[in-house]
Amino acid sequence: MAAITMRLPVPRKAAGPSAPRGGEKHLVAPGDTITTDTGYMRGHGTYVEEEKLIASVAGAVERVNKLVCVKALKTRYNGEVGDIVVGRITEVQQKRWKVETNSRLDSVLLLSSMNLPGGELRRRSAEDELAMRDYLQEGDLISAEVQSVFSDGAVSLHTRSLKYGKLGQGVLVQVSPSLVKRQKTHFHDLPCGASIILGNNGFIWIYPTAEQKDEEAGGFTTNLEPVPLSDREVISRLRNCIVALVTQQLMLFDTSILYCYEASLPHQIKDILKPEVMEEIVLETRQRLLDLEG
Amino acid sequence: MAPSAPSRLGAGGGQCAGAGEAPPCVGGSRGAVASGSDARAPEAEERRRKQKNGGQRRESMASVVLSEPEKLYIVHGVQEDLRVDGRGCEDYRCAEVETDVVSNTSGSARVKLGHTDILVGVKAEMGTPKLEKPDEGYLEFFVDCSANATPEFEGRGGEELGTEIANTLYRVFSSESSVDLKSLCINPREHCWVLYVDVLLLECGGNLLDAISIAVKAALFNTRIPKVRVLEDEEGSKEIELSDDPYDCIRLNVDNVPCIVTLSKIGYRHVVDATLQEEACSLASLLISVTSKGALTSMKKVGKGSLDPESIFEMMETGKRVGKSLHIALQKILDEEESLGTSRQKVGFLG
Question: Where does the record place the region Disordered (chain A) (predicted)?
Fold first, then answer.
């Protein structure tokens, strides 16, 4: 039976007096004066005009000793060494792949930074170069780590560990990079029955938990068997929960996603995306997170 | 939203073999096997696609690139009636409809279906009736793919898609019973109302035509055409007098206006309201336009894959069923909005 719901649009509510977290944040818009004190060094997101320090992006002001910078709330991904990213191959070039990671420039994955199947360590030859497309094609998804950042801001990736590599079946959710909390580990096996990779660049990959843990292939053999229905339901529910958290501007990390999942269990999976259900679930999640902190 | 230079596409209201239309393809570009193509297993299709070329295929619709395992996941999910966002095969995403958003039009509507955002404005202007239909008014469609939707639409990039959609709309509204064109006539052979329907694509999130047809119906429901009187002089010259009261106007009867339902074939089953990712997995789709009573006014097959005649029949039945529910839901929301009257809080674009 077809289910079609139509509704009239509701004006967005200003985020009410919900818990002010950890101190007052000094929020600025482009053009706002941050300070007129000339003793500060200007950092990213600021510029000097007529002896005043003015913000050039919309975000929160951060002060470290004498350095003042503005961290933008919604921005493209700016790579930092050691970040985990999930990216999509856009081009196959000589000796390297171009990867799309929601940053200002395409990221680069050099052939020498890629693990060969079987985990062998050897010098890359001409045959490897010709066989590049057998490893990764346009459209493939990979998980990788940032090795270095070029001077123009482009990011160089590497997959030199068995936990990185080509991704198999699953669902990708694209969110703003500023909503992904920096943690010690970004690979989580959630107790609800699915696994998740929280890329620092805002690409979140949800996939069914692999049965066996020891994979020497380094992620090159993709399992093309159909995923069972129970796993699919968990993955769809997680995907909708993440979309709900993002719509309500909550930081994404394993605990918040898990609490949101548990709060959504009484509802049907497709109902989670309805605005009123979304608000209810996220409110409950927020409450549980506050109880956890306090 | 001024229809300053509406492109006169094709003959008035009739058939349209527009430039953007894909020729109905039988068996795709692979030649040999014709009708049994969708009986082949999806895995064989994957292997064939891999061998073809690894590069991106540029299509006129705004599309996303997916990896093969991702596509496989979506196809298997559809087989089990559980799509990526938890919907069933016949469920629509949550839609938001608002009318009267553009103040200087005769009628307007905005529809948000998931990530797809469409704005339609209708302007009623005086014109001369067409020669072959002297006692009827007519509709003109113009579709603008805004560069806001995707950078591909910058400059003239969105023209091809816009022409294709406009031709589809002409075809859908070509049936005589859709809109009562005789009510748009003022003076036979001399004056009639021309309704310029302008569609603006603000965001592409899959399933464009369904959202556009919903918005067009809502905009036509919202259209208010000023009442005119024809005064005859002694010499026989006719004068048109506009009523002084700005609220004295005629409304269109939209009971028979059809809505488009796009059914995309994914694997062995078909889905309604496909997202961009699902559209990337579907090789062939069927577009049918259904009226509120369940009557089909037009049908079009798009995509480079082929469809078995039996599956076309199944898809048509699904489309009629879904179309009827769509009309009921839309009419309900339009009546609700109308009943709120002036107390309705207009959300518009900055809400």
Answer: 1-26
Taking residues B213-223, report their average pLDDT: 95
Q: Are A270 and B85 within 8 A, CB to CB?
A: yes
Q: Which of B201, B221, B220 is nearest to B211 (CA)?
A: B201
pLDDT of residue A212: 64
Considering only CB atoms, A4 lies closest to which of B85, B92, B96, namely B92
Q: Which residue of A has its CA nearest to B214?
A: A6
Predicted structure pTM score: 0.83
Q: How far is CA B18 from CA B8, B21, B23, B170, in A?
A: 11, 6, 10, 10
Start-to-end C-alpha separation, chain A:
46
Q: By three-state DSSP, how is residue A294 classified? A: coil
Interface size A-B, in CB pairs within 8 Å, comes to 131
Mean of the pLDDT values across residues B83-94? 92
Q: Which residues of A118-143 are buried (b: 16+ CB within 10 A; e: fewer)?
A: eeeeeeeeeebeeebeebbbbbbbbb
Q: How confident is the model at residue B191 (pLDDT cuts 50, 70, 90)?
A: confident
Average pLDDT for A175-185: 92
* pLDDT, position A215: 52
Which one has a higher pLDDT value, A3 or A293? A293
Q: Are B70 and A92 in contact (CB < 8 Å)? A: no
- Cβ distance B329 to A133 less than 8 Å, yes or no, reads no
Chain A nearest-CA distance from B94, in A, is: 6
Between residues B245 and A89, which one has the greater pLDDT?
A89
What are the chain A neighbours of B88 within 8 Å (beta carbons)? Answer: 3, 270
Q: 3-class DSSP state for residue A53?
A: strand
Which residues in chain B have their CB less than 8 angstroms from residue A281's CB?
none
Q: Which residue of B has its CA nearest to A141?
A: B67
Cβ-nearest to B98 among A8, A222, A239: A8
Nearest to B322 by CA among B333, B334, B314, B311: B314
d(CA A68, CA A40): 7
CA angle A88, A194, B70 (to 5 degrees): 35
B residues 97..136 contacting A (CB < 8 A): 97-98, 112
Asked if B142 and B7 touch (Cβ cutoff 8 Å), the reply is yes
- Which stretches does DSSP call E strand in chain B? 95-99, 107-113, 116-127, 138-145, 185-187, 191-203, 224-226, 228-232, 238-242, 249-251, 259-266, 269-272, 284-290, 296-303
Contact A208, A223 (CB under 8 A): no
List phi, psi (to 5°) of A207.
Answer: -145, 160
CA distance B270 to chain A (A): 13
Q: In B11-100, where does DSSP find H-type helix?
A: 42-52, 68-79
Residue of A1, A5, A6, A269 to mutate, interface with B, max B Cβ within 10 Å? A6
- Highest-confidence segment of A129-138, B33-42, B326-335: B326-335
Tell me the per-residue pLDDT of A71-105, one tens digit each, with 9 for 90 and over: 888 889 999 999 999 999 999 998 899 999 999 99
